[in-house]
Specification:
With about 290 residues, this protein is of the alpha/beta class. It has helices at about 40-50, 120-130, 160-170, 185-195, 200-210, 220-235, 250-265, 275-290; strands spanning about 5-10, 15-20, 25-30, 60-65, 80, 80-85, 90-95, 100, 105-110, 110-115, 135, 140-145, 150-155, 245-250, 270. It is built from eight helices and 15 strands. Strand 2 and strand 3 form a beta hairpin.
């Protein structure tokens, strides 16, 4: 097992791990994502997060928005379809300090998409839980189709961001009290969202329902979450021919919501912890660098 440093550097957060002979000996976290550098350069943040670590002696592999045009260095995307075992041979060196993993892209008339960071999770997930379909929930959920150990296609659904915007910056959330968790409200949202071909006409009803007293004003966030996730899941699985389970790559809380939504429409799923998938993927890249 190799020794290396792994960094997951996104838009809003940064996480770093130091591995010795395959075992994690130190882990650090920071809110200095590429959009939150606080006047510092990426090189300065890198030096701080890795202070005391042997950055000159072991491979340092970074994934995520650090490789975007808003990050440390703009790294080209790999165009899909692509075999993910190409990742380790397509890394980009930055300032003789570290390697950045390339993202993936789709560029067709019917689908323009990009991802950064998720490709490293996918590399690990395909080894840990081989499947034909994966979903990676989050601010911008990724739905990925895999074929012969490579990514054939993927799409992005902005469910998480839409939930935040509607609740915090639209009329839907205006005047609401502090929100409380409600599994019942989430399930009711699932029922509505899963059955409508379009939820545009349903969104204003979210507000109207609590204005008229038909829905508890404390549970609007969970109802809206169910509405959006239910619609997303139904939409993204309606054309799938495979009867194999969908692999959900996420933390337990978010994974449970997607698992419930998939179960509601009769689609089996298996959950894989996002951090586990990322670490397995980054380790395979580091191992290739060491060999």
């Amino acid at each position: 097992m190799s020794s290396y440093i792994a960094i997951d550097w996104g838009s809003t957060n940064l996480r770093a791990w130091h591995y010795q002979q395959g075992s994690c000996v130190d882990e650090r976290r920071s809110e200095a994502g590429v959009t939150r550098l606080g006047g510092r350069t990426p090189a300065e943040v890198f030096a701080q997060i890795t202070d005391g670590w042997p950055v000159n002696d072991v491979p340092v592999v970074m994934a995520g928005m650090v490789g975007s045009n808003a990050g440390w260095l703009s790294v080209p995307y790999l165009a899909c379809p692509v075999a993910l075992d190409q990742l380790s041979s397509r890394l980009t060196r930055v300032e003789d300090k570290a390697w950045i993993v390339p993202g993936l892209s789709v560029e067709r008339d019917d689908n323009y998409n990009v991802m950064r960071g998720e490709e490293t999770q996918l590399l690990g997930a395909m080894a840990l839980q081989p499947a034909q379909r994966y979903v990676m929930p989050g601010t911008h959920a990724k739905w990925v189709e895999v074929e012969q150990n490579g990514v054939r296609d993927f799409r992005t659904v902005m469910t998480g961001e839409l939930h935040h915007l509607l609740l915090n910056q639209s009329l839907i959330g205006a005047g609401l009290p502090e929100q409380e968790a409600s599994p019942v409200a989430f399930n009711e949202g699932l029922q509505v969202g899963s059955h409508d071909a379009s939820i545009l006409a349903r969104l204003f009803e979210v507000r109207a329902s609590h204005v008229l007293g038909a829905r508890d004003r404390r549970h609007i966030s969970d109802f809206l979450s169910g509405l959006l996730i239910g619609h997303e899941v139904a939409l993204m699985t309606q054309k799938a021919a495979s009867s194999q389970p969908v692999i959900i790559i996420a933390s337990s809380g978010l994974a449970q919501r997607y698992q419930q939504a998939l179960q509601f429409i009769g689609v089996d799923s298996v959950t894989l912890e996002g951090d586990r998938a990322f670490q397995h993927g980054i380790r395979s890249i580091a191992d290739d660098l060491a060999n």
